[in-house]
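#struct-queue
[09:14] JT: dropping the first one here, sequence first, then the structure tokens:
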Amino acid sequence: MPRLRNRRAFALPMTILVIAVITAAVAATYVSTTAELTTNAAQRGTERAYNIAETGMEEFMVRRSESGFCSNCASDPTAADSEWTRVTLPGGYADVTSIRVRPMIGSNAALFFIRSRGRDTSQRLSGSADSTMAEHTVGTYARWNTATMNVKSAWLSLSGLNKSGTGVISGVDQCGANASVAGVMVPKGDLNVSGGSFHPAGNPPVDTTNTYDQLKNQTGIDWAGIESGSITADITIPGQSFPSSTTFDNNTSYWPVIRIHTNNFSLPNHGRGMIIADSNFSISGSNMWDGVILIGGKLTSNGNNTTAGATVSGLNDLLGGAAADTSVVSDADANGQKTYLYNSCNVAKATAGLRKYVAMPNAWSDNVAGW
């Protein structure tokens, strides 16, 4: 029978083998865990980059015309091959580029492809060779909306107009760029004139041919949309202060959109731009305004003041199907020396912020190739 004997140095190789096996298992687990963490981080980073790219594109399309937002944008994108900007967002940024695909052809608007590459800077992705940031690129086709405001008259009042004293309300284009429009436009039978020194002008000087319902349908203003915030305001009252006359005098290119929620607000000084008032509004003394005035309620104009652009009052009648009211109580009042002139150049400047890219339906694409 063989005799068992202790073999020297057998435990050491076995220990080394066990340690090697355990080390390999730990290393494999570490590599697997690291790969899983990297994959999860990459997936989350890609989702964040996707959200950044989409948000950057939407901000570009809405805010492109804001002063200082796009330093590489042309005044007229239809005349440029491309324009671009970087939109900085929490956790990253989006490089947005608009490329003109087709110029304006007749009445067909110019066509653009807008590409937005979002980059997530909140976390770097560590791979086997380098460390980088997650990116994602989206794109869409869009048209450039050049429509501003379809002016029907120098002063259109859905609630009617009471005119006393002297003055001129003229639909003849003061800057001579467009054809003449009506001077005064009100529903049939809702113009009340006292005194013989009022001289309207335009084509026609006074238009009272439409019924109340017909005029509501012809106004062409989405007042419900404006009330809900479709036009972004530069100044909101209450909450902010109306720009001073010095502000307008020192910056002749300043044409703000001023949203007024205060009832019976009175124009404090001269200026320019677009005024959007939810309810009643008044202009007194010698204050002057260049641009667009949109009044939801009653507009009262007293004293010797001048407005050059376009004025629309009584717009709350477009909400909720209000019935015709021919009483003089609800009518706009124009008292004293009045000069209300149609000026298409001022209208264009006041509504310049409304010009923007409009995405085409079913034209959005994901995972756009970047270059």
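[09:21] JT: and here's the second one, same format:
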Amino acid sequence: MKKGVTVLICTYNGAERLPKTLAYLSQQLISKDIGWEIILIDNASNDKTSSLAATEWEKYNLPGVGFTVMNEQRPGKINALETGTLLASYEFLIICDDDNWLSSDYIQRTYDILENDPSIGAVGGQSIAVNDSGVFPDWFDAFKTGYAVGKQGTKRGYVTPRGYLFGAGLGTRVKLYQQMYEHFPSLLVGREGEKLTAGEDAEYCQRLVLRGYELFYDPELTFQHYMPQKRLELEYRNALFAGLAESDKILDKYYLISRLKLKINKNPFNKLRLLMISPFRALFTFSQKKSKHHINVLKYLLNIKSAKDSVFDSIRNFESQSQNNKN
């Protein structure tokens, strides 16, 4: 693929949000030897998203920047992303949600990070919440991570043990994105129209970790994340976090496997230690949740499959294939 960056914008009924997002993209400051493009995927909208986006982008008269609008009728952000990557012309990819206002150096900085370190599977930045009034509810700071807002590390560098990066503003490699789903379809689909399903971004990051790639955070990679008033109401917040809790049922199994893998890779003796203590922990804990956790540790260490937990087995199969490919 060509050197450069493809910006993917997945949107559902984004006609009101897109003009400001495209305005910020039009102000990108990029080296002349780096190509870039925008691919907008209209994910089954029923407003004028597609026509408005094309008309809006024409205002900026940037003939060297490709701009493509396509439709994906299957609901679910993961479907829109996978379809968009098939049209990507460039090696690197930025996922820009329709409410993300990227700083003017965002594309250039993302390109430099990925180009200079092939071990990085995904890079994320610092998300700054904005809204029309400039005032946020008292509860917002405690819940902002669920809104993909805030810092993603204490300093610039690898944040792989964290386990995930925000999907908003995520930078990655097109070929990697395609490979992560080549034989193993996503278990999480992300947003489906008005449904606040979630987790496809964290699942992608977990698959990268299981394949041995690093997650990277750069606090200088900044963007504003616009919050309309509706998203700051308690009804929306509660629905959002209910969707996150539902996705955690799957993501927790990814995290368990990836953390075990990192721990064993760091010190192979940890496998023997866990094999010795996990049966006792499973038997003598009073918590059913903790007991199940220790049983899953043993299932992973002993490669035991169970028809009762197809999700765990699917993730384990993905990790096993990753290990086989590495060997």
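[09:30] RK: nice, looked through the second one.
[09:31] RK: The longest strand covers residues 214-226.
[09:31] JT: good to know. The chain has a mean pLDDT of 91.
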